[in-house]
Write a structure and sequence with these properties.
- By secondary structure, the chain is α+β, with helices and mostly antiparallel strands.
- It has one domain: OB fold (Dihydrolipoamide Acetyltransferase, E2P), CATH 2.40.50.
- Helices cover about 15% and strands about 35% of the residues.
- The strands form two sheets. It has a six-stranded antiparallel β-sheet with strand order 1-2-3-9-8-5.
- The chain is globular and about 35 Å long.
């Protein structure tokens, strides 16, 4: 359920490193806990994100939740599909429903994040 090529945070975000870029999203667990997602607020291209600091929010029928960046860097792409179709986050949170891509400011930050098996253990074997 949780791809091995992703790293995870305790706040239920993930990052997948592709060269000097990190692709960031929320986990299957996060979207499940949120329920039906109705709105996504994301930063603009060029914005700077800081590891473990908020960069946007996800609104569901249950609540609004902040999104925390697993890594720091400059936003180089935003998944505009989610603006028109935020429910895609419920359908494919580890794939096509990524949130942002960042040029990593410190690639070593990834090493402080959980592996897929560590994250599943964190969830209690979910």
């Amino acid at each position: 359920m949780y791809p091995d090529n992703h790293r995870y945070t305790k706040e239920h975000e993930w990052v997948r490193v592709e060269g000097d870029t990190g692709v960031i999203g929320i986990t299957q667990h996060a979207q499940h806990e949120l329920g039906d997602i109705v709105y996504v607020d994301l930063p603009k291209v060029g914005a700077l994100v800081v590891q473990h600091k908020t960069f946007g929010s996800v609104e569901s029928v249950k609540a609004v939740s902040d999104i925390y960046s697993p890594v720091g860097g400059e936003v180089v792409a935003v998944n505009d599909t989610l603006t028109a179709a935020p429910e895609k986050l419920n359908e494919d949170p580890h794939g096509d429903a990524w949130l942002i891509r960042v040029k990593l400011s410190s690639p070593a930050e990834v090493n402080s994040l959980m592996t897929a098996s560590e994250y599943q253990n964190y969830l209690g074997g979910a």
